[in-house]
Amino acid sequence: MHHFLTQLPKAELHNHLDGSLRINTILKLAKKNKVKLPTFNRDELSSLLINDENCKSLKEYFIPFDISLSVLQTEEALEQSVFELLEDVKKENVKYLEIRFSPILHTQDGLSLDAVVEAVLRGKKQAENIHGIKSGIIICGLRHIPAAQNFELAQLSVKYKNKGVVAFDLAGEELGRPALDHIKAFDYAFQHNLARTVHAGEVDGAHSIYDAVHGLKANRIGHGTHLYQDNDLLQYIRDKQIPLEVCLSSNLQTKAVSSLENHPIQDYFKKDIIVTLNTDSYLISGTTLTKEFELAIKFYQFSKEEVEKLTLNAFQSVFLPKDEKQDLIQNAKDEIRVLFGNHK
To answer: Which of 247, 246, 244 is nearest to 282 (CA)?
Structure first.
């Protein structure tokens, strides 16, 4: 099954750049740029960076990001990290990846917001030219920063809208930080026809998803784990075909769910919610997209036909123009047909 899932054409919608670096790259960048790390021992650094089921909360889940962000403060580091991430996912037949990051977190050493975005876009373009892998960039606003700064990030997103940036997001600690505080930024994105996704209902309740959908006009929901708390909203999201970006490993690590057996993904899938599988962060969640599919099969007994639906859900939910999306979907369907024929 692992070989089959590795070969399966995949798209990923929810992946954080600063959580998806290669450990060796972190070490090399730190040495090159004289960045102090907690340790330069690879195994010790791995144990600090990679979360597992012993992680106790979303707040604790975020701690390793301080390490990875410390080496992502130069244009070269950003460009290299984007390129390497796309190179890595290509190996498991990911055809399209949406990479999200918050430019404001990469300005600690004096880079401008524009310089940060342009470095990321160069890495994206280089990977497409060399490896033929398509990608889109999602710029994240953050719940814990002032609304005015998120408005500036929304403006930045719109500025690069037709140059590789495909959407605007709201990320960060959810509890006690209402999405509606940042409604002006999302109104700006909406008024400029830029797609919107919002981390919501990850560790907070269904009301957080309600605010994301009705207040911030989200086209997709990041996580949406607690949607089951509001059946009326669940039906609305199903009827409006608003996809959920589900991250199984991450949800266990942040304690969005107490165990994978208790994750609502199977219930959402059966109720015809558009469910997609995602890693959240390759390194910090210690996973791959193939592993996430393996978990879905192991814990929820998804059949091959249901796996096909899961992967096509992602292709159908990408933030791309209709013609580009249709090409991706058709190519994925053609590849799946051949793959299923070889694995009867």
So the answer is: 247
Query: In sequence order, what are the beta bridge partners of 142?
Result: 171
Average pLDDT, the chain: 97
Please measure the distance between the N-terminal and C-terminal CA atoms of the chain and give it in whole angstroms: 12
Among residues 123, 127, 89, the alpha carbon closest in space to that of 278 is found at 89
Compute the distance between CA of residue 247 and CA of residue 253 in angstroms, rounded to an integer: 10
Is the pLDDT confidence value at 15 over 90?
yes
Query: Percentage of residues in the chain with pLDDT exceeding 70?
Result: 99
Q: What CATH code is carried by the domain that includes residue 221?
A: 3.20.20.140
Strand order in the sheet with 220-223: 10-16, 94-101, 134-142, 165-171, 195-200, 220-223, 244-246, 275-277
Domain span at residue 133?
A: 2-342
Convert the pLDDT of each residue in 259-284 to its tens digit.
Answer: 999 999 999 999 999 999 999 999 99
Tell me if residue 152 is catalytic.
no
Residue type, 274: I
Number of domains in the chain: 1
Report phi then psi at 219, rounded to 5: -85, -25
Torsion of CA 208, 210, 216, 218, to 10 degrees: 100
d(CA 26, CA 324): 34
Residue 142: strand, helix, or coil: strand
The tokens describing 42, both together, are 């690879």
Tokens at residue 6, please?
Answer: 């590795």
- Model confidence at 341, pLDDT cuts 50, 70, 90, reads confident
| Rounded Cα–Cα distance for residues 306 and 91 (Å) | 23
- Kindly name the residue from 12, 152, 174, 202 that is annotated as catalytic: 202
